[in-house]
Amino acid sequence: MNTVAMAETSLAVAETFDITEETGFLPSEDPLVRFELDTHPPELRSYLAAFDELGKKLPDLLEGCEARLQIEALPAPPDGLFDELNDREVLRLCLLSGFFASGYVNQFDSEPVDRLPEGVAIPLYRTSKRLGRKPMLSYDLLCLHNFQRRDPESGLTLDNLDTLQQFTTYPDERWFVVVHVAIEAAAGPGLLAMAHAQQAARRDDPDSVRAHLDTVAESLDAQTTYMSRMTEGNDPAVFATEFRPYYGGFEDVVYEGVDELGGEPQTLRGGSGAQSCVLPSLDSALGIEHASTALLEKLLDMRTYMPERHRRVIDAFADDVDLREYVLETENQTLEASFNRCLDELRRFRNVHFGQVMQYIASQTGDTTGTGGTDYSEFLGRLEEETVEHKIS
User: Fold this and answer.
1) Domain boundary assignment for the chain
2) Is the C-alpha dihedral spanning 136, 35, 188, 126 positive or negative?
3) pLDDT tens, 39-95?
4) H-helix or E-strand containing 266?
5) Of 314, 78, 103, 341, residue with least CA distance to 214
6) How far apart are CA 212 and CA 282, in angstroms?
7) What is the largest CA-CA distance in the chain?
8) How far is 282 from 342, CA to CA, in rounded Å?
9) Total Cβ atoms within 10 A of residue 26
10) What topology does CATH give the domain 16-389?
């Protein structure tokens, strides 16, 4: 993946890493549905085709408790594989490896395991290292790179989105993923508007700042609208019992064949919406600080599960103009109203999300810990409170 020295502004960094109004943190080019086999020599073609095929069979294999045998049969990657793959193929191999790894460790009605066989451990580790991420099925693989358009010429809307990979055959799992993809796409205009708002603040243009903040608020409203539709196609009982367990983390799992880890067992968080970069980016630009030490540590640890290029964008928003400070110094009531509207919409999104977490997890399982390993009631409730505390009176 291409990397550049930290640019001066959030807008420049967003453009460098292909953060667009249409896609936000989603890839600017849709993920591969299958590997581009014709571009590779026969030995690599055979290896990649086996991954494509196992991905298709994974839901049925997991349902029949037969996935582990198939995953254990995967060979170690052939020599030269990772030098041969382009960026989109690296992402596909990382996605499939992540699903196979989580399916292997979390297979229902099976004995616990403390190892990942090298046929899945090596490609997951090597592709994750190239992407600057942890070797785990985190939010970026579960959602950001796990979609396809039914009509390639139409937009990233719920009726036009499908998944690339699932653990189950339940349509509820598809709905859960595509709702998140639609939310990420709806965030695109807000992310770019926030970068433009910081640029306008730098040149002291309050009218432009206000207009861009209004766009941010509209974007957040669209995200909340999508989030509110989660219950339309995702039954809480199906979510809690049929596919959420596959999103769980790893505790003391050895990645076989990965020399860099020296045989040390790995403990890693599972996939979580807290690993999305959207709200951390908006928080950073809006000057929302999370004062709770324990909470802040968890938030910062969640960032280590994000791809490196996305962490760079969050850092750029944080290093650019603090819009809350700018609005306070400007003493413009119209501008203050637009700023507060952003915080109201951000609080509303967090409130709806909190309510759904309680509906989908607490009421179904009684579990107070999310797949990311945090106490979500304290975690999400405090985030909402701190958002409100930063409104300008």
Assistant:
1) 16-389
2) positive
3) 999 999 999 999 999 999 999 999 999 999 999 999 999 999 999 999 999 999 999
4) strand 266-268
5) 341
6) 13
7) 67
8) 9
9) 24
10) Methane Monooxygenase Hydroxylase; Chain G, domain 1 (1.20.58)
* Sequence-distant (≥ 6) Cβ neighbours of residue 341 within 8 angstroms: 213, 214, 217
* Pair 361, 376: CB distance under 8 Å: yes
- Give just the sign of the alpha carbon dihedral 11, 30, 25, 208: positive
- How far apart CA 387 and CA 346 sit, in angstroms, is 7
Residue with tokens 């989105």: 161
Distance between CA atoms of 224 and 350, rounded to whole angstroms? Answer: 9
Please give the Cα distance from 88 to 30 (Å, whole number).
9
Question: What's the rounded Cα separation, in Å, for the pair 381 and 350?
Answer: 8
Q: Which two tokens stand for residue 281?
A: 């980016």
Q: What is the DSSP letter of 375?
A: B
In this predicted model, what pLDDT tens digit does every residue of 191-222 receive, in sequence order?
999 999 999 999 999 999 999 999 999 999 99
Cα(289)–Cα(173) distance, integer angstroms: 34
Name the pTM for this structure: 0.93
Token couple for 72: 């254990």
Dihedral sign computed on CA atoms, order 162, 164, 166, 168: positive
* Token reading at 151: 């009509």
Encoded tokens for 103: 């399916």
Q: 115 forms bridges with which residues in the sheet?
A: 254
